[in-house]
Specification:
The protein is of the alpha/beta class. 22% of the residues lie in helices and 26% in strands. The chain contains three helices and nine strands, in the order H-H-E-E-E-E-E-E-E-E-E-H. It is elongated, with a radius of gyration of 33 Å.
Length: 242
Amino acid sequence: GASTQPGQCCNTCVELRSAYTARGWSLDGLKDTPQCKDQPLTPRFEQLENHEGCRLTGYLNVSKVAGNFHISPGKTHEVNSVHVYDLGAFRDGHFNISHDIHTLSFGDQYPGIHNQLDDTRKVFNESVNIGMFQYYIKVVPTRYTYMDGTSIETNQFSVTEHLRNLPNLQSLKPGNLPGVFVYYDFSPMRVEITEEKQPVTHFLTQLCAILGGVFTVAGMVDQMVYQSMKQIQKKVSIGKLS
């Protein structure tokens, strides 16, 4: 009954999954069909109940235009060039979007760089049953030149964040998908950082400035002590100090 055309048969799990997706049916019911009974279609319910997470690592090649990448639950399928998500495994309507970001960068590292999302931890309690956490990143192209003349082309970025509470899974609107989303855009400006070796004269100038400041402060303290002692001696001489 899943076929969209009369007389069409679904002999493989892939064909059956495509037919279910085309009709908008939940893929959770496929696990009992002969074509798919030996293939994992959705996360195991016991794993969800035990609040198991996952660890992701890798890299993406992106063009220098605005875009996004995201981490969302469920199985994904493409229908008419549109991504369709099956969230049948989350029938209780809960999905914990707590997450840790150990490191996130746009390009190679250079001395002194600070990626603002490194060692980021977001933990949400039960008040957020299902949510959409969004990072908005402004990427700034950067050229770092070392003292030997070599340089690297990389990027640094600034970030803002936003949490959107979503309704239950049954009433989600298009564009509202639970998960962690990273939206990025590139700045039209570029930052250039160059390593330079300071000359000895610069060091001597700083040293003279420090010594001059020390002598100035010492002179002020000496003057204050002198004036205080002078006032005390004056009072002693006229007998007003007991």
